## 1
Amino acid sequence: MPVVWEWGSEFYLLAENCEKYAFAAWRENIAEGAILVDGIERNEGITYSITGYAKSPGLTKGVATRLLSAALGTKIRYCSVELAEQEFPRQTDVMYREEQLAKRVELLLQKVGSKLLEGDESLRNRVGQTGKQLEVDWTLSLTCYVRSPETPYLIDCEDSVLDVVLPFAKKLASKLGEVIGYALYDRVEDPITIDVEEDEGHIYVTAIERSEPESGN
Amino acid sequence: MGAGSRVRQFNHRFYQGEPSLSDAMESCNEGGESIAAFGECQISSGADGYELVKGGRIVGIFEEACIESERAVFKLSTGMLLEVTGSGIREIFTKAKAGLHGLTASDGSLYNGPPGSRTYRICFESESPELTDLYSQYFEAVYDRQMHQYPDRGYPRVVVGNKMAFYDLKNYGAKTGLYTWNVPRAYLDREGAAEWLKCFFSGDGTVKLVCAGKDYDIAFDSTCREGLEQIQVLLLDEFGIRSTLKPRPREARPGRRPGYNLRVRDEVEFAEEIGSYKKEHIERLEKILKKKGRR
């Protein structure tokens, strides 16, 4: 993962370094370069990345410049360039319209909640005995697909609230092109509870996949 | 040796009281009055300042000292203090140096160019001008050098080139590599720990008022998992504040590094004991405290 720019460097270097790297590393067998900026919107703590693609080294600077323009105003942690012999996969089989997302998130959280209750006896008992409503905090990974004349862009954002993450994704997209759809990462395998809090009517549970490393105290 | 008392010679040779533990000299009674003792260490005051003696040997002579019931603290150079307690002597950070480290770990960068280069650049950049101002202020307090204002695309930024400060920050772990940093735990007393956390949080922390199922959320975000684990331990050990570290799940996109989120569980205690210098955080933390009846 060649990082060509990081926070603290002058912004003009972001696009310049992308181009320099691309010209130096591009070989005949390279089909495409993926340029990625990773950052965080710090008022709401939304982490994100935007990826754009270039079919030749000469196109990388323009793509990187547009990524930078979209991300300005946030903390841009770094920019990386990845070259590949085949086109990068960038379309998903399932793409949602904006108005479908709320329902998808609801279903996702229900799925996480059911799996948690299924696998966690103490939580099941707690919910059963108190009759309180289970509220699940699960990080949503939303991808926004953007079409533009020069390249498609993929915007990945993470936060646990759709009403927070969606407007931010749309804001980034508005500087890049036209939104053609959204994908929500909805695979739930073996969720575990890492944090439980309770008030009069609710049991709030923060959950992650068991395979993901965590620690709490 | 030349003329003058041994104390004056010591002062002259060892940077006005900067201690040299390995070169500790035998104590000489200059007629100072003993004012405090902590374990093996004795402190006396005289015309030249405060003399610290351990096991009959002079550790140092200091112009400034702060004697408290449980410890004595002496001022050293470049934002360091010498703390003397019943259990021993250690160097700790001043509040300014602790803050400078916290800010550097979050939004600062140390750059020394390609191998062989003589560039030693220290930079701090943020969307919040109050943080760049604070960084400049702390930098000047610690290293007695002014930083240059150098805004870039609307982001306030302060920059300076200084080899000594560069290595001083780096050696204490303010930046240990690309995206990595350490909490300088060994050099933080309680006040220093609070300041380090407050400054780091001002940069890489978030106070959310819209979150899943709850009214508010306080969290740190970073790609440096090790550093967040150190924060987790520091919060618990020093302030009894609990937190939970979790990864940011995401689809693997080529070139993207994993990220981590440290959520504070004792929000009220965090708001009261640590807080933030960032304007938006301060307003939101106030709301949390009001909600909890603490204001």
## 2
Amino acid sequence: MITYLQDHFQQTVERFYTHAWLAVLPLVIGLVLAIPLGWLASRYRRVYPGVINLAGLLYTLPSVALFVIMPSIIHTKILSPINVVVALTIYTVALMVRVIADALIAVPAEVRSAAVAMGFTGLGRFLRVDLPIAVPVIVAGLRVAAASNVGLVSVGALIGVDQLGSLFTEGFTLFVGSIVLLGILLCVLLALILDTTIVLIGRRLTTWQRAVA
Amino acid sequence: MIKFDSVVKRYPDGTTAVDGLDLVAPSGQITVLVGPSGCGKTTSLRMVNRMVEPTSGTVWLDDRDTASVPAAELRRGIGYVIQQAGLFPHRTIADNIATVPLLLGWDKRKAKQRALELMERVGLPTDLARRYPAQLSGGQQQRVGVARALAADPPVMLMDEPFSAVDPVVRAELQNEFLRLQSELDKTILFVTHDIDEAVKLGDEVGVMRVGGRLAQLATPAELLADPVDDFVAGFVGRDRGYRSLGFRAAGDLPLVTEPTVRLGADQAEALRAARDGWVLAVDEDARPQGWIDVRQLDPGTTVGPDLLHRGGTVAKEDDSLRAALDAALSAPSGRGVIAGGDGRLIGTITAREVVERIEAERSAGVPADTREPEPAAGSRE
């Protein structure tokens, strides 16, 4: 493993970076898309089952299949990393819509009443009252989505997008277990870094949560 | 002034929450809506700030039809306090209180200043300003709720069971402070509760509502206790009406008797000399009543200690109600009710018989039961 890393250091670092942005970009786009969708589902009870069921359905799509059919849907090149980004964005949205909808529904009724009675209007109330209160739950959901994305990105190796997942395909074809192990270790490292980052950002946004007498 | 003019709220499923409500809540007064759950009292309250829109009829704020004012603008001009306070958990106490001023576009420093000022006003230490709601007790949170409603100095306040979620001791404390605040601020207050005792204690006028959203009776607390308009109101107002109505009658000049007393620490012989009918009243060095001593339990040579005090008797203030005076007499083991001055010093005692004679005399003289006095917290002691 050490010799492999010495021989392929530059390549491995590049793969690590590619893997990282392929996991993070969909996470950010997915979150941004899921917030309005989650709000819709929380606000209009008739929309809720439809949105949530659709999200659940999307999440069950096998990732390999999604990577493969993506080019024919969005007219990208078969090897383009955009396929991975779009597919993972779909998974992130699918996961986060439900989390966000439920987190917004869980905002205590008396807090919501108070906000309305104070004279908050629609968007102001959402951004300054409902969303901040939903942050702890959203952060928990994002941690799951981040870990899941790191795992799913490696599947992209099967359609030729070069990143840490390529260590698995290489190790498998060369029959060298240590290359696979290196891939696993680096994926875990990446997942830990992302998770820690999300937790730290979450803490910054929720000082109020730990402030208990 | 808040005025309901034939206000009806009917829901699409056919249930009628409020059925033809006509009511005026006069400026500078506390008007309480009271009734069992489902009587439409909260719905009525919420129609004032348009959190519920009336099906028909008009709610007026002075000479403005509330329906003609944009909802958010209307709400920013009306204070609102609810059960559980409904504080924003993610904002500090100061930020919670400054909510409406900031929505109105006040400058941040001024809003902050106002928040601190209000914390003092409602009896909260200002060093809580940077805490979060979860760090405060229920009673403190409710005070923040009141401060938040007062922040932009709205002339009108809506209060929806604001003191229901705290324990009885804290509730009584909050109620008393609320009355004190109102005596300084003179807001026009519409107050909703299911607790008739709270309604009678706080209201200048009390509107009793029945299930189906109809106003059964609107009257002063004394009138309500003295003359319920029908069986529903009588039943809702409850037992002990005669006794409770004494809470609205000033005691006036009672025929007090000077009571011999002993200081704590006096010896048995002195206590025996002062005792009447086996009981002697113990006072502290400032002549404030401490409790009754049963002299038969005093052994020769012992002194009057705090452990021998009988603490069951209530103390009425001389400017209290007849109810307080009667309660003092009934609760005293000696049968002699202790009456103290505003400074807490003993003035004298009175028996239940003498209080009742006063009540009888007033009845035959035709003194109306409308001399409203703040009702003392029942069982208050020095």
